[in-house]
Design goal:
With 189 residues, this protein is an alpha/beta fold. It is built from 5 helices and 5 strands, in the order βαβαβαβαβα. The protein has a single domain, classed as Flavodoxin domain (Rossmann fold, 3-Layer(aba) Sandwich). Helix 1 packs across helix 5.
Amino acid sequence: MSQPRKVAVVVGSLRKDSFTRKVARAIEALAPKTLSFEEVPIGDLPLYDQDSEAQPPQAYVDFRNRIRAADAVLFATPEYNRSVPGGLKNAIDVGSRPYGQSSWDGKPAAVVSVSPGAIGAFGANHHLRQSLVFLNMPVLQQPEAYVGNAANLFNEKGEVANEGTAEFLRSIAAAFAAWIDKVLAEEGA
């Protein structure tokens, strides 16, 4: 068997035990063994400031290098005001700069949005997709991944509490694995 594809996981929620992070970890646990996952934290990234590019903060450099080293990116986001959280938008900006040297360029991506509400952060999901199109990231289209009622999906240990949800997350992981292979094969990677 060849090496697993490296997936950078970018979680938009900064809370340690957020529902969004739990969903990302559940996808990782349910994914085919052809993928390996590593969360790339965003909470310590200074706000993007183009003036700092003359001598970029080490946090920018490390973040960009970790994204570049990945084969693909899984974005997991909550919804704040019908969009993505500020920390996630900042991470997207940091990774996309300096102009012409985007760490995101061409990387296959998947978006999973998570909410305690019924519509599963639909607004954040689609708002994030807009940015990813500009960043030249081919995004998995199906299955769409809106995870609603997140407060009821996990047991006390933070594990998925029912098989229906587990099967849904497993289908997302399997489709993402196939998508990564397809995109990278087209690119000759």
